[in-house]
Amino acid sequence: MESLPLLTIFCTLFISSLHNLSLAADTITPDLPIKDGQTLISSSQTFELGFFSRGTSKNRYFGIWYKKSPETVVWVANRNSPLTDLFGVITIGNKGNLVLLNETKNVIWSSNVSRIIARPVAQLLDSGNLVLRDNGSSRNTESYRWQSFDHPSDTLLPGMKLGWNLKSGQESYLTSWRSINDPSPGEFTYRLDIHGLPDLFIASGSVKKARTGPWNGVFFGGTPNLHNSVFQPILVHNEDEMYYMYRLVNNSVSTILTLDQSGSVERFVMYDQNSEWTMLYSTPMDVCENYGQCGANAICKARKSTICECLQGFRSATEGDLDIQNLFGSRKCARISTLDCQRDEGFLKLPGIKLPDLLEFRLIESMDLKECEAECSKNCSCSAFGNSNLSGSGSGCLMWFGDLVDIIQLPGRMMGQDIHIRVPVSELASTSNSKRKKRLKIALAASVSTLLGSFISGWNLKAREVFLVRLQMDIYRNTKHFLTVSSNREVGSHTA
């Protein structure tokens, strides 16, 4: 009978030890630290936490990586304070902070939570987020006292926020590694600009290197058309915060967004059955994505031999070698005639582009596009307008003033937006004439092809080839003469 209490105590201790073992799978407690050589694994076996080195470096860092792709480190704690030996320990200190200790028990890194946590526990979640919470409270996000998702390194994971806490003023952004083997903070950052309509941009120090178009309610302009197949972009704006994030569309596909040491933003995907990442895209993709490549009031066309062209209604205001100017983005385009609201002016639609940067602008969310045109027409310094929101049938009025900077003609795989640029009426007539000429050429070619098909069907192959070559030359000469005469007549009629 006396052995019964001992049996009860033994069972209690055994159950307690099992509980501690289960916690040890993905958690850190004051009694269960992580030493160099040990790791934690999230419950879904997706992420792993521990110490690592890169390349030939002996520096040791505490971080998180994909379990089946250990080279893919997604977060690093002590980027500025590497350990130089194998005696590092990550544990929870007396006041409840997560701390990294060196061999002499000095704190190398800390979560720096000011409020004391009674029953602190740190847990590696299936999302890749390392959270510090009170083990006695509920496990919802409101109970987190600290989380690694609030302190990104060079990688944006699904569910991680890139943006601003508007109450505290804290900004979350990506910072590149210094080199492929050195995770200390590098030269480049990737951030959310919340000045006006938000956009994403890459910066070197305080200098903007590349940017997306503004958020239009559906996507960031000038980004690849991959949405709804791999990930869904989300922009959240309320009184407390404004941030960009993305979520997975298909849970069998993993995707990450990284900022590499050269300043490129890259998106990768990995399928469940694989352990290798495939790059979906990298930006800047070409020279046109370098910020302001062609200077003010110009459009950059990467597929043209001369990549920079002045917008219609503008002409080059810079003398010198245009090829050098195009290469370094120093070209300046000025209006052919000054906008003064005293002469006939209209708006020329430029479709499917990356919208210019919001340097001087005005946003009126309550207006539709027709009202926006009228509002822009009344203001002599309004140089362009467009919809601010493309969701539904489109809404909102976005107006630009002064120079238009960083416009790109986008290839088909990129998502662009329309803008309407203020020009003299003569420019609208010129555009209309060019479109008529193009339609006439197409109509002539189609008609000739149809007639010839029936006329020479009985000829032998060699005779058909000789006849078609001669006919094409005659059509080209005659059409060119006709269009020149037609153009001269139109110009004469306009000037009269």
From TrEMBL:
Signal peptide (residue range): 1-24
Entry keyword set: Disulfide bond, Glycoprotein, Signal
InterPro entries tied to this protein: Bulb-type_lectin_dom, Bulb-type_lectin_dom_sf, Pan_app, S_locus_glycoprot_dom, SLSG/EP1
Keyword S-adenosyl-L-methionine: no
Domain of life: Eukaryota
GO biological process, one term: recognition of pollen
Stated role: Involved in sporophytic self-incompatibility system (the inability of flowering plants to achieve self-fertilization).
Keyword Disulfide bond tagged: yes
One Pfam match: B_lectin
Gene3D superfamilies with a match to the protein in the record: Bulb-type lectin domain
Domain Apple: 341-424
Domain Bulb-type lectin: 25-145
Record's protein name: Uncharacterized protein
